[in-house]
Design goal:
There is one protein chain. By secondary structure, the chain is of the alpha/beta class. It is 46% helix and 12% strand. It has 9 helices and 5 strands. The chain has a 5-stranded parallel beta sheet with strand order 2-1-3-4-5, sandwiched between helices. Strand 4, helix 4 and strand 5 form a beta-alpha-beta unit. Helix 6 crosses helix 8 and helix 7 crosses helix 8. The radius of gyration is 17 Å and the shape is globular.
Length: 219
Amino acid sequence: MNTWPPMNVLMIDDHVMFLQGMKNLLSVLVPELRVETAGDMGNAVKLVELAEFDLVLLDWHLADCSGEESIQRLRDAGCMARIVVLSGETNATMIRNTVDLGAAGFIPKKYSSEMMVAALEQVLAGRIFLPLETLNAAPPPPPAGERPANDPRLAGLTARQMDVYRAAARGLPNKLIARQLNIAESTVKAHLTAVYTALGVRNRTEAAYQASREGVRID
C-alpha cells in the first residue's frame, strides 16, 4: 500500500459515524492527515473560506443542500480542491450528473472497507475514480508502458492547453480555471475544445470516463 504526503481534507456528511469511518480509512493511507468535518453546507463553506484543502469528500444528499447546489456553493466560496462525491445512491444518471458538474470522482457508500480503500488510493494517486460496474462499462486491459503519463494523443497540445486539461480533470469549472491560470474564460473553452479533439471525445464528461477507464493521472 502506498502512502502520500501531508494532505488537508474536508469531509462533508451529516452522518457522524460515516465521517469517522472515512477519517479512519484515510488515516491509514495518509500518515500526516489534517481533516476537517462538516455536517452541513453552511459550515463547510465557512471552513473553505478559512483554509485551503487538497481534497473534498462530499455526501451527495445533505439535509440542507442538494448535491448540485453543494458543488456550486463550494466553488463559489473559492474551493480549488478536487471534489469527490460519496453517495448511497448509485444510479448511472446521477453519477453522470456529478461528472457534468465537475466532480473529480464518485465513490459508492455501499462499498466494503477494502473497496473503499482501493477507491481512495486511486483518488489520492491523482486519478479519477468512477464505479464502472454501476455504469455497465468494464475497464479495458491496463495500457502498456507509461501511456497515461505520455499519451501520444496529447503530444500536439501546448503547455497551456495541458494546464487547462489538468485543471478541468481536477473538477474545476471554467471560471475557476480562468482565474487560476489568469486567462479569459473563452480561452479556457478554446483550450478544452483542443483537448477533447485530441482525445477523441466530445465533452468533459466523456473525458472523465475515459480517464477513469484508463487509469490516467490528472495531477
